[in-house]
Amino acid sequence: MKYRKRIAFFLLTAVCLFVLPGCSARKAITASDFTTAAEAAGFSAVESEDESTSATGTVVQMEKDGISVTFIEYSSNAEAKEDYASQRS
Questions:
Q1: Do 61 and 70 contact (CB within 8 A), yes or no?
Q2: DSSP of 8-21
Q3: What is the DSSP-derived secondary structure letter of residue 57?
Q4: pLDDT tens, position by position, 12-50
């Protein structure tokens, strides 16, 4: 019985050691980072024609093979929350 508890404890500890550090590795990207990554994937910049957002910050739109990807950087958290709420409804 003790042996099983020890094995379970060590397995759980090992899983936590491998999983938890991955969660802290996230960081926000900038419009420049987005553009660089999108161009590396073969996307090209296009003029933003998307009127579904009321963003006053940075809007970058990339396109490839009929697929459009848009990066929006809002000037404030309140503006981002407001635009998110309007798109959900």
A1: yes
A2: HHHHHHHHHHHHHH
A3: S
A4: 888 777 776 666 556 778 888 888 888 888 888 776 655
* Residue 59 and residue 70 in contact, taking contact as beta carbons nearer than 8 Å: yes
Burial (Cβ within 10 Å: 0-12, 13-18, ≥19) of residue 62: buried
- Report the candidate in 40, 82, 34, 78 with the shortest Cα–Cα distance to residue 60: 34
Burial of 55 (0-12, 13-18, 19+ CB in 10 A): middle
- Burial grade of 31 (CB within 10 A; 0-12, 13-18, 19 or more): middle
**pTM for the model:** 0.54
Radius of gyration of the chain, Cα coordinates, nearest whole angstrom = 21
Distances (CA, A) of 25 to 19, 20, 22, 28, 38: 11, 9, 5, 10, 21
